[in-house]
Design brief:
Layout: E1 2-8, E2 18-23, H1 26-37, E3 41-46, E4 63-74, E5 80-97, E6 102-108, H2 117-136, H3 153-163, H4 168-176, H5 180-232, H6 235-251, H7 257-271, H8 278-292, H9 305-315, H10 320-335, E7 343-347, H11 354-365, E8 369-373, H12 380-384, H13 397-405, E9 411-415, H14 428-436, E10 444-445, E11 452-453, E12 459-464, H15 472-476, E13 478-482, H16 488-506, E14 514-516, H17 518-528, H18 535-553, E15 560-562, H19 567-571, E16 586-587, E17 589-596, E18 599-611, E19 616-619, H20 624-639, H21 641-644, H22 650-653, E20 654-659, H23 673-685, E21 688-689, E22 693-695, E23 698-699, E24 705-706, H24 711-720, E25 725-729, H25 741-746, E26 748-752, H26 755-762, H27 766-769
Helix pairs in contact: 2-3, 2-5, 3-5, 4-5, 6-7, 7-8, 9-10, 9-11, 16-17, 16-18, 20-23
The protein binds adenosine-5'-diphosphate.
Adenosine-5'-diphosphate is lined by residues 316-319, 348, 350-356, 494, 498, 533-535, 538.
Length: 774
């Protein structure tokens, strides 16, 4: 059968379907004309590529549909609208290009109307799927549901395929399935896939819709909230506040972009919040911190050694070596333009002027001064802050100090680095190391602030009371300068030149209203204070001034003279009786020397014997090192019993008890070694120890004497207590240079390397009896 051929683009005509079409292409119009001249039959074959305007025979599929033209409507544009009804599938045997149109040789394919059980089952399945498809697809026309009532399996499949919104290729597949069984299966497959796609589409659009609904709801609620706030008169408050914050931000010059952006974001966040909400409070505090920090503000720091020297000299008496070392340190600093040199650490008992030296350095270098105390800090968060998610979170002490300074290049004094504790909450000294490390501290990150702050311009100085309690890694980063404490003489000078005039002025008095003489000052120092520094002394002088000021204001006196006689009226009875040395030689008592947190001190070491089994008891809050030191001495004595003149078998029949009074004060360290050994020997041999001597030095098992720390402090303390002869380790001899010459002259100092050198001089009757064989 030969028929005019009409290529289809994007649509397909199925048998039994009535389809409207528009025809515009010349060849197609010609084919239509030919059909109308004959029996109105046309062959419709789909193009493989819809973009082709003049398809060749090869561009067309091999299966098409013979259709009858039902209606033709000529359009003014030259084209035609037609309505066609499909009649039957056919195989295309050959296509001829006749120049003005295409024609084809076709062979009709007969449908199989039989409905087997299997085909019926397939029909049910297809109808069910199609129902679901219609329900889910919003594009489906209502009349599509007619498909449900079709009994003919071929028509059912064709009708469903026609109504699906699928690719031409898929429809062509259905068309080419001549076997009805096969055709229904394909339709069902296509339907399943389409349903799946529709569901995905639905899920996506559902999500989009929900999102939109939520945004709209929030917007709506916010607008309502604003309306309510306006009613309550709060809106202006927020707006005013936000405007003020923006002004502050604008006023901050040269702010790095990330910081600026962050602050801006937080302000925007605040603007959207209810001013009463807890969150707004948090954001507001946070913004206050960010806006208050001196991100770019620096003071005009400079370094003139001559000026620094003048200032240090003017502010402090004595301390010659300390001042020299500080100036050396400053010189190095000014050479290495960055502050990569070690951190200065001033070590010494309270009141020796560490803080005030640091203040002077700040003044001399044009830096602001801030001071934080690290005493008792046991939590990393105290250095580095808490995350903002904690209620009541705050920045750490470093950032707090920086805010207080108001500049990014202050002199930052970290007080009491030796009093930091470490526990499960983290190691504060590790955080501190990061603060002090020039490699890391230019982006110091506080947990609260979240933005890195540049600490590299800060000059850090630390202080400590004792060296050995400073965490090791910190100590490695520091250059330590020890301030050992003052002699009575130095204290007198400091009091006369600095403390007294300052107290007089601070209490609103003048020199013509109040007077205190040197001897009185000396008595205040000796009988009312007991310290290495001058802190209590300053307080006592303050007390005198306060009481005197009251007398003057009450009109009792116009001028106050503080004298030896009336001193107790101002300060009460002398509070400190100097722990004077023993008056008479005794058995088993030796004066040892110690350095405590308040400076050097003397301590009595008492040993007593009693019948027993050779046990050694130690009391008086002695630390582990001190106890070990006592045992070392004891072992030395046992192994040198005969040579020491001690009776045989003492270590089986005699118990020893070592006690160091003033038990509330913990004592530790090896430096009482020779003193404890001497006391034991005295107790065991019954020889008395001279009362006017004191000693310090570590002892080894062989009786050798090893060097110890704090010689100057110890000797000053011994001198204060009226001791005249002192034993120190030979290796400590160079420390004597630090001693003021006038004190040195009043003392006899023995530098010893073995216990044997001590015993003949310390024990009263020993020298003649002890065989010397060392
Ligand atoms: P620290 O920090 O070591 O505990 P401070 O610096 O607080 O000691 O000193 C206590 C007081 O003693 C301060 O008023 C200080 O000015 C004063 N002072 C300490 N040493 C001297 C000194 N050598 N010359 C003048 N005043 C001193």
């Amino acid at each position: 059968m030969q028929l005019p051929l009409l290529p289809l683009r994007g649509v397909l005509v199925f048998p039994s379907m009535v389809v409207p079409l528009e025809i515009g292409r010349k060849k197609s119009l010609h084919a239509l004309e030919q059909a109308m001249l004959g029996d109105r039959s046309l062959l419709f074959v789909a193009q493989k590529d819809t973009r082709q305007d003049a398809p060749e025979p090869d561009d067309l599929y091999q299966v098409g549909v013979i259709a009858e033209v039902k209606q033709v409507l000529k359009m003014p544009t030259g084209g035609s609208k037609v309505v066609v009804e499909g009649r039957a599938r056919c195989r295309v045997l050959a296509i001829h290009d006749q120049g003005d149109m295409l024609s084809a040789e076709v062979e009709e394919v007969a449908e199989q109307p039989d409905v087997t059980d299997e085909v019926e089952a397939l029909m049910h399945a297809a109808v069910d799927l199609f129902e679901v498809y219609i329900k889910n697809s919003r594009k489906m026309p209502g009349e599509a549901s007619v498909a449900m009532n079709i009994d003919d399996p071929s028509r059912l499949a064709d009708t469903i395929a026609t109504n699906l919104d699928i690719r031409t290729q898929d429809k062509q597949d259905v068309l080419e399935a001549f076997d009805v069984h096969d055709r229904l299966t394909r339709v069902s497959d296509i339907l399943s896939r389409q349903i799946e796609l529709l569901e995905i589409e639905k899920r996506i659009s559902g999500r989009v819709r929900r999102q939109m609904e939520r945004t709209q709801k929030e917007y709506y609620l916010r607008e309502q909230l604003k309306a309510i706030q306006r009613e309550l008169g709060e809106a202006d408050e927020t707006e005013g506040e936000v405007a003020e914050l923006r002004d502050r931000l604008a006023a901050m010059e040269d702010l790095a972009e990330p910081i600026h952006d962050k602050i801006e974001r937080e302000i925007n966040r605040l603007a959207k919040m209810s001013p009463m909400s807890a969150e707004a409070v948090v954001v507001r505090t946070y913004l206050d911190w960010l806006l208050d920090l001196p991100w770019t503000i620096r003071s005009d720091a400079h370094m003139s050694l001559a000026e620094a020297e003048d200032i240090l000299e003017a502010d402090h008496f004595g301390l010659k070596r300390v001042k020299e070392r500080i100036l050396e340190y400053l010189a190095v600093q000014s050479l290495s333009s960055n502050l990569k040199s070690p951190i200065l650490c001033l070590v010494g008992p309270p009141g020796v002027g560490k803080t005030s030296l640091a203040r002077s350095i700040a003044r001399a270098t044009g830096r602001r001064f801030v001071r934080i105390s690290l005493g008792g800090v046991r939590d990393e968060a105290e250095i580095r802050g808490h995350r903002r998610t904690y209620i009541g979170a705050m920045p750490g002490r470093i950032i707090q100090g920086i805010r207080q300074a108001g500049t990014k290049n202050p002199l930052f004094l970290l007080d009491e680095v030796d009093k930091m504790a470490t526990d499960f909450r983290g190691d504060p000294s590790a955080a501190l190391l990061e603060v002090l490390d020039p490699e890391q501290n230019h982006h110091f990150s506080d947990h609260y602030v979240e933005l890195p702050f540049d600490l590299s311009d800060v000059m850090f100085i630390t202080t400590a009371n004792v060296l050995h309690l400073i965490p090791r890694p910190l100590l490695d980063r520091m250059e330590t300068i020890t301030i050992p404490g003052y002699t009575e003489e130095e204290k007198l000078n400091i009091a006369e030149r600095y403390l007294w005039p300052r107290q007089v002025e601070q209490h609103g008095l003048t020199d013509s209203q109040i007077h205190i003489g040197r001897p009185v000052l000396t008595r205040v120092i000796a009988q009312y204070t007991r310290e290495a520094g001058v802190r209590h002394l300053e307080r006592e002088l303050g007390t005198i001034c306060r009481k005197a000021a009251r007398e003057i204001v009450e009109g009792k006196k116009s001028r106050v003279r503080v004298t030896m006689q009336n001193l107790s009226r101002y300060l009460g009875h002398p509070r400190v009786r100097h722990w004077a040395a023993e008056q008479n030689p005794e058995v088993g008592v030796v004066t040892g020397l110690a350095v405590t947190e308040v400076g050097g001190d003397i301590m009595a070491i008492e040993v007593t014997t009693m019948p027993g089994k050779g046990q050694l008891t130690l009391t008086g809050q002695l630390g582990d090192v001190m106890q070990e030191s006592a045992r070392a001495g004891y072992s030395y004595i046992r192994s040198h019993r005969e040579h020491l003149g001690i009776s045989e078998g003492f270590d089986e029949s005699t118990d020893l008890h070592i006690h160091v009074p003033e038990g509330a004060i913990p004592k530790d360290g090896p430096s009482a070694g020779i003193a404890m050994a001497t006391a034991m020997i005295s107790a065991l041999s019954g020889q008395r120890v001279r009362a006017d001597i004191a000693m310090t030095g570590e002892i080894t098992l062989r009786g050798r004497v090893l060097p110890v720390g704090g010689i100057k402090e110890k000797i000053l303390a011994a001198h204060r207590a009226g001791i005249t002869e002192i034993f120190i380790p030979e290796k400590n001899q160079q420390d004597l240079e630090e001693l003021p010459a006038n004190i040195r002259r009043q003392l006899t100092i023995h530098a010893v390397s073995h216990l044997d050198e001590v015993l003949p001089l310390a024990l009263e009757s020993a020298s003649s009896e002890t065989p010397s064989e060392s």
